[in-house]
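Quick illustration, no need to memorize.
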Amino acid sequence: MENQEQTTAVEQQYLWAVGLDPEAFPPQSLLGNRYRVLSSQVVVDTDAYTLPELPLEFQTYVVSYLKLSRLSLHLPRPYGLLLVGEELNISEIFLLENVPIDRQGKLCPTLAEAWSEASALRQINLLWQVLNLWQPLAEQNMTRTLIDPRLVRVDGMWVRLLELQADVAAVQLAQLGDIWVQWLDLAKPEIAEPIAEFFYALGRGEYDVSSAIAYLDKVALKVMQEQPLTVRIATASDVGMQREHNEDACYPDNRRQKRSEQPESLRDRLAIVCDGLGGHEGGEVASSLAIKTLEQQLKTLLHQAEIDPDFSAQGFIAQLEMVARVVNNQIVAINDQQQRQAQQRMGTTLVMAVMPRPHGKPSNEVYVVHVGDSRLYCVSKHNLRQVTLDDDVATRETTLGYNFYAYSSQRIDGGALIQALGTRGSDMLVPRVQRFFIDEDCLLLLCSDGLSDFDRVEQIYDQLLLPTLTENKPLDHSCKALIDKANELNGHDNITVALMRCRFAPADPDEDLDSKGDISTSASTPEEEADTEDIQSDTEDKAGALATTQSIEPDTLEDLEPNTIDFDSAKTEFAVPRQTNKAFIIILILIALLLGSGLAAMQFPQVKDWVRQHLPTSLKKFVPPNS
């Protein structure tokens, strides 16, 4: 019953109806015999299991919406198009999903309304997000949206747009400065001076988008020096209920999570999940090799970020892309060497969260590197946001402007991957690197599709994810709870999760995993242990130092071949040592005592006494008395 209630809550999808006349369709009226009007232009689909209505051809503005839907953190996505009325009096209603409407069906506040209540970090963050939306909107002639105060909304720590407006006249970046300068009186005292200088200079046209973003980067970094930010990370992996092998891998290694054993340059700053594909002796090799290589490369890269006086976000992003291509080339080389073809070529997905310390100073910026369909979610007390977009056929068809996602996802191959590390050369790889700031306590969840399939993450937000953020639960326990819930709700695939909990507070010693290095979610045999050690030894040899690659970066996924990747293959479980049973140890000791050297040891009374004290009563009769 509980699961049914959770599913119902997720299915209550609020839509924004562009072009809807509130007078013609008052609250509780039915639009197109399907969409119930809640208030103004907010509607709910009463038949979510039926595909929405679509016209035969899309107008230009609809295609712009589809292409911009790749910015899913901030922009709405087309849901349906209705024609309402009769003959000469027909009007078009454009329905949008992924809109800034809260869980109660109310519009989120505008940027102007949220500004006065925001912390200094959030005020900077909100401006930063608007500036980062300028260029992609300009490419579709939609920048007018950002100067319309009604359309720019705030949902927790995210800027989200209600709908898009086309540029009917030239729009200048300086217009943002003219709007924002009106909010100066409400800027927080610690940033009032640099923000005032920035607003006036922006209004005078002294900044382009890149330099404006760089200025806010510096302001945010300065504010962070006075903010304690504690990050803790834990992972877990499980073979699932139907697979025989586990092809997933993660960092930190789910068997050795003591913070004291992790490199200082990576501790509390890196989380990775890889989902291997290519079958037994393929997928697990690819994912393990990817983790080992990334670990070694990130040690160097994060250290350089701390000491490089010329550190820049764009430079760091370029380096992360290069690291992804290094991993890709290593797996490709093994495939070529072993003459693997087509579906036999091994590969792996990748989702990675990195938190550098530019110039050695604390920072609240997160870089996300993504290839494939493993995901990263951001959990806050306000909402759950999926940060990454899957590299699958359905998403590609939508973001290229070919079709609405509801229809693209119904394709037989809609969920098939269009790229993964290791399946093609780096000239065909498009690693996605996203960057965002956190300005409140949050939980970053990285997971393979064993958890995320069928919208399970959305369903467990209230039950598992929010308590992990708000309550002082050990992260390793939360990881295991997520594994258990994924096996209960899905279980058809391997499951791997990584949790990165970020809190604006001093470190809590109880959070540390130094005494919790035994996170076990699946049994293993001694043979599997030996196989795993061989794989790890082999991948360490192959991970090596950073290789140079000649990278050709396509602008869009249009440059990728239309062939897709079959990842439904057998998987090999990484052995996870369990705590040995005490009675089992005692029995082994008894057997040893009965064989040779043990008999000699039993000649000493002290040994006999110790054995008697530790043996169960039923076994003490086998120990001869002291002479």
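The chain is about 35% helix and 15% strand.
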